[in-house]
Amino acid sequence: MDTPQKTLTQIENPISKLKHENSPVYNYINSLSPIKPVRSLPIPQTSGSLTYSSPPSVFTSPHVSSHKGSRLKSDVPASIGEEEALFETETPQNLENDCTTRVIDDGETDLVKMCDGNVKQKSETLVWDAMFLDSSDDILIYDLKNNDSEASRCFLQTSSESKSRSLCVAKPTLEPVMNSDDPLHRGVSRRCLDFKMPQNDEQTSVASSSRCVVPRIGLHLTTIAMSSKDNNVGNEYSLSGHSRVGLQGSATPVLNLQDNVRENETGQGVKDGAMSLALVELNQSSPKKKRQFGQAGEGESSCKRCNCKRSKCLKLYCECFASGVYCIGPCTCIDCFNKPIHEDTVMATRKQIESRNPLAFAPKVIKIPDSTIEVGDDASKTPASARHKRGCNCKKSNCLKKYCECYQSGVGCSINCRCEGCKNAFGKRDGSSFTSMDIEQDKENATSGRGRRERQPSTPMPFRQPLAQLPISSNNMLLPHQHLHGASGSSLHKSQSFTEQDMSLLSHSRIETITGKRTDDIENLIQSPIPNMINAASPNSKRVSLTHLDSSESSPWRKNGGRKLLLSIPTFPSLTPHH
DNA sequence: GAGTTTGAAACT
DNA sequence: CAGTTTCAAACTC
């Protein structure tokens, strides 16, 4: 039935049919951006090699992109997603040309050096498999000021040594979560699915086992962000002087922890590796307690421990699989296929699932700027900083239990939800939400017997602080893909559509952050429907194609059955290798 | 720890 | 696309 070995239908790459270059949007962006769009180069597919898929081409529906057979390099130059395209896997030639465009903000120069250096070493590829491959949908803040640090050098070295197809580089220092100079934190990795080319194992192993181990951290940023007790950590990524680098394109588990996992496949190592992640993977606890997320809001921990019995850990039921990590020691799954030794199977299954639902591995929670923005009906403005992307469908739990994905993620329900009798403590669907104080007050009240005080709309606790600012490229180009924040760690893949919240985020952030005379232009760009470039993407009937939008509508955010239209813009590149 | 409930995922 | 089934986590006892 759902055997992972099922042959996947090769579907003609529809991306190539998209003539983005001819689109007004493309031309427009081209005029705005000094960055040359990435041109595709035919890359021969190596049979049997696992390769990293590229981020999605712009303006393709998630579904479309999910079928890109050979997607090492998209044919589609970027329009809105130009920056995203720049994160694509590339050939060295391209890297020479393009890696300088991959960094946003002030870190650009440094990265140029890094890229140059890397290219000059004639590395076959640059490795972007930086640290946060798991929730790479998050915006990463790299300290590019000290790129001559050992970690940086090592990173470059490792990059040049590795033949894994991956993306550009940045100094793998994330502050304040971790200091790469801290030897204790070096080499931290996780059991992310590793789609490295098998033949690279040896090299990779050498690299990773060497002293110069890049601190690769399968870090669920959102987990940190959502850790209500770690606000100081989770939400402080945007440090001055740091550049934000969207890892959008690297989402897939290029993380080089394969070695770690593999050598641990049968032994203690896995556990050791997992233990080493304790720093960043919070909530480690007794294996018996599969989930100790604490209060809701810590959300989907990166530390997945499944207990699958029948799914072979190859379905989304399996949290490990859904999160893009291999099952490891603490898992008590039966007949598990979600292990490095079944890499091919895992990959095939992922691909299959993606073909069915390109957003299957997308982060479930998206961040919304910390202010009141409209996510609900016109009448209900929901103050919230994060929302479940797809929304819940609770019927009996009133969104008050962890059955509810919204509640579990520590976010309020939104218009996306179809829940009944929503009482989500992080924000009801009708727009009310509570502050952390409210929640704690509720706890107190519950224990003390006092009544609940009147609530003031506010932001759900886990996201009170913005995780990252709106990424704007050096030329003020919006990088829509960088708005999203992975909550599930799954995040190995990026969705390729924007939910309404994404767009709310987008538009809102635009207001907040875009400055300069191009603001209006960008605004127009964002709000202008893009016929034929935004395709239907309705894996769960919750996304509406703008293609179907009546052009006579005055607003691109036309309601549709009470829901706003969703602009489908590639945001989560499918990074599943496509053979 | 076993059994039940729940809702997402998968299937038809 | 809607209804049903399967599944595993959450929950209860």
UniProtKB/TrEMBL annotation:
Keywords: Developmental protein, Nucleus. Residues 302-427 form the CRC domain. Transmembrane segments: none annotated. One of its GO terms (cellular component) is nucleus. The keyword Nucleus applies. It comes from the Eukaryota. It is found in: Nucleus. Pfam families: TCR (PF03638). Its main location: nucleus. Residues 433-466 are annotated as: Disordered. PANTHER family: CRC DOMAIN-CONTAINING PROTEIN (PTHR46159:SF14), PROTEIN TESMIN/TSO1-LIKE CXC 2 (PTHR46159). Belongs to the lin-54 family. This is CRC domain-containing protein. It comes from Eruca vesicaria subsp. sativa (Garden rocket).
